Amino acid sequence: MDLTTLRAVLAELRPLLLPSRFEKAQQSDGHTLQLGFRSLVGRHWLELSWQAEAPRLFAIAPPPRGGDGSTLAQQVQHGLSGLALVGLQQEGMERVVELQFAPRPGEPVSRRLVLELMGRHSNLFVLDRQGRVTGAARQVREQQSRLRPIGSGDAYLPPPPAQGQAPRAAESYADWRRRLSLVPVALGRALREAYQGISPALALQLAGDHPPQAADLLARSVDQLGESEWQQLHRRWQRWLAVLAREAFALSPGQASAYRCWQEAPDAAAEAEQQESAGIQPLAANLQASQSPAPQTLEINGFLEAYYRRQLDSRRLQQRSLSLRLRLQQALAKEQAQCRQQQERLDQVEGSGALQGQADALLCLADPSREQVSEAQALYRRARKLRRSVAAITPRIGAHQQRIGQLEASLTYLDQLLLAEQVSPAPAQGSSQPTSPSPGLGPDPLLAQLEELEFDSQSLLAPRLGNRRQRRSGSAPPASGQVQPLELELASGLRVQVGRNHRQNAWISLQQARRGDLWFHAQECPGSHVVLKTSLAPGGEGDLQAAADLAAHFSRARGNRRVPVVMVATDQLQRIPGAGPGTVRHRGGEVLWADPQRAASLLVALADRADRPGPSGAPAPPNPDRLPSLDLAPQP
């Protein structure tokens, strides 16, 4: 969050939260604090985060309860209990926000929360009436900062001022250009070094609306810019200062950056012609006369909540999936090594006949010695031991092969999950929807799928520990991971179910399947179970081919042009005793040749049909048998 975004957030929050009574503090993770307030219009929540990669402050939807037992949350809860939020202060061009609390509006401030949004130096401090630190998100020791070490009991000191001069709307065009042209450096660097509050995103927005041209302009030296380019840059500069002065923020498509909280004047072309003919004049003075109060909405806060949630969920998904992939690969390598070891022992059984032949040859001598008889008896014992080991080694090899197949299937499901995350369409940048924090923004469905896949993999990664955990928990997955299998509706009206992990495969193939349903799976290849619900209505050749294509698409062979797929009636499926969930065997069956790319086109068509508006022009009502386009995106 840069200075412009922070001021836009505070401009929306002040009319809604000042004043409001503090009610609740909870810490959702190690670097995020959530505060609940009660105002005249209802209850509101703020999220304050000092995370190095994403320090932020904005309103959020009511979060799930939890994290109120942390030390920082308890300090905030005890210190702010019974107080009212009476101020949201941000001074100058610093990204430092001060939340002021008092017993009642109009009374002196007795507690303050100071949030510093400064990248890896971000921090949160709890201050008493005298300005002493009573709690901090991170204690700053002397070995960490020689300029400003702060700990509990110390007097709070603001961070050192940023380099450069604070931007002023009254500064003339000539002085502004002269300041930026003092040193022949790139324009982007000159803006950040000469003035405070200029972030890389703001520099792109000031340079223009087209990303390639804006980046090229910022990379050019200041002594290479023409007069028209300087004037266009100064007009945007004045417009930005006018928006800051009036707090007339508005969310608009980012274009050059991910989003922007200020818009250019609607009559920018006319203003440009007038200014060029009459000389450059500051826009802020003209706009101050028509100052109007900002609308009391949470458009920017709502967008930022969805934006940060999407970015952070994607980051968590990548981190957790990488960890799971490494563990699965290590378990797979271990199983393969053990399987090879058992196979080598089994191969030695073939030499038992040679050992017995050697023993027979020794005993067939005319006058064998005692040592030769003993050697023959030892050879007989080794041969018998090798033959007896077949009964013990063969089941072990079968168990290792089953676990190898399950581990490879888990890696396939993980690949499918990451592919869906890579090609999932993000909301349009700069979209003004939703206009307020929406309680419908739940956890990322891909994260829920990953959590369920992690639960399924417990028995594969640590067999004894995983089985013990499942017995304790009743073999039930975590509540946040109860993800339903993928269900699609074909053009004929038949439904197709696709499992996305081992438990979903077992559920659709063995529990939900009815007599007459058909089961599809890529032949001799890890992948998802696909069930065509032909028990409801007979399926045509196109339905069978579509189901086979889906089975090929959701398998490890999705990169092939043609994939053999086994089609079996579900009543011919049997669960293998002692095997993991989703492991079945079947009798008979028919092999169909499938095309994974054809399934990708089918998924896109089904997604478009699900998102198509209804007859009246309104969006079609949600269909539980269709998945959103997020999970139906094809392979690029």
Biggest beta sheet summary: 9 strands, antiparallel
Global structural class: alpha+beta
Give the helix proportion (percent range).
40-55%
Strands of the biggest beta sheet: in what spatial order? 4-3-2-1-5-6-7-8-9
Please tell me the overall pLDDT: 82
Gross morphology is elongated
> End-to-end span in angstroms?
32 Å
Q: Low-confidence spans: pLDDT under 50, at least 5 residues?
A: 267-295, 425-442, 470-481, 615-636
What's the helix count?
Answer: 19
Please give the radius of gyration in angstroms: 34 Å
Number of strands: 19
- Report the portion of residues in β strands: 15-25%
In short:
By secondary structure, the protein is of the alpha+beta class. It contains 19 helices and 19 strands.
Give a verbal description of the structure.
The protein has helices at residues 3-17, 71-80, 173-180, 187-194, 200-207, 211-219, 227-246, 268-278, 283-289, 299-347, 352-363, 370-423, 445-456, 458-461, 463-473, 502-511, 541-553, 596-611, 629-632; strands at 20-29, 32-39, 42-49, 56-60, 84-89, 96-102, 111-116, 123-127, 133-136, 252-253, 259-260, 486-489, 495-498, 518-522, 530-532, 563-569, 573-575, 584-586, 590-594. The protein is of the alpha+beta class. The strands form four sheets. It has a nine-stranded antiparallel beta sheet with strand order 4-3-2-1-5-6-7-8-9.
